[in-house]
Write a structure and sequence with these properties.
mainly alpha, Lysozyme
Amino acid sequence: MQRRSFLKLAAASTSLVVLPVLAKPLNFLLDREAPAGLDKDGKKRLTRAVLSTLNTHFGERPLQFWGRPLSQIDMEKRLSNIVHWVDVSVREHQALYPVDPLWVMGQIMAESLFYEFAISPSLAGGICQFMPSTATKEYQMIVAGSLPEHHRAPYRKPELADALEQYRSRAAERERYRKESAGNAPFTLNKALNWMAEGKDGKDLAAKQLAREKRIAEINETVQAARKDYIDYLQANITELGHSDIFKYSDFFRGFDERFTYRKPINAMVHMLANSLRVRNGNILAAAAAYNAGLSRTFSGEVLYTQYGTLPNISETSTYVSRILANYEEIALRFYQG
């Protein structure tokens, strides 16, 4: 993505109104023919640019995900490794669509602040925050609990290794019940008030609706319990067998959960971005939104907008894209200034 457009002031005389003139149009479309990848100096500059951005804006307060300040983290080593794999992945997927490595770094920053062991409440994991199902089904990553050996020693808390399947099963049960019992949820507050005003007896329907809500709450408790068990299983093995060290214990993590490594998740993220750019005619904003909300949600059937897509009306996605834009701006500012 090109750098932001700058305003250029021009005035022929003091009698004329001074108006801002765009030197170039704002461009959020990536060039289909742009060369991919960075040279050795470019990779070093990108590492320094991201590190400088973090130092400038996060200081000594504890970082999200990490729980400790930047000064206690060997961030330069991490960034250098991440930049390497971003560059490798961008080159690999160039034929699909060239992806700006600066944008990828800004997006990883928004996802996890580069913390390898970030785990979200939805069970997304790693620096690129892949959901278990996407990681296994679409990108053939090993995910904790997916191999028979994960269910026995020496893995810690092996009795919790099937918690991911329990979580999926309970969540599916909740969705099935919601659909099957939809007829037992007829009342909105307005409808209930109208029935009362008309003197209608809605006791039976109200009882069915309350029973439905109670059952959903009960299933929710089992979903939450399975989620907690799976996170406990992940964290026990990350800390006790992997010692929270992606560098010294990289072999362990490659066999336990590849979402917590660098190569495969970064390659998968770049592939997803490249494919979205291809489908959305180079629109990096739509591509970033697609990573968060799904590519189909960026589709528009309206004339003109079909080729570029749209940003879905989802608050989380809007915040997500806004953060990436800010991250990219700060990183690019430093990168292009050397």
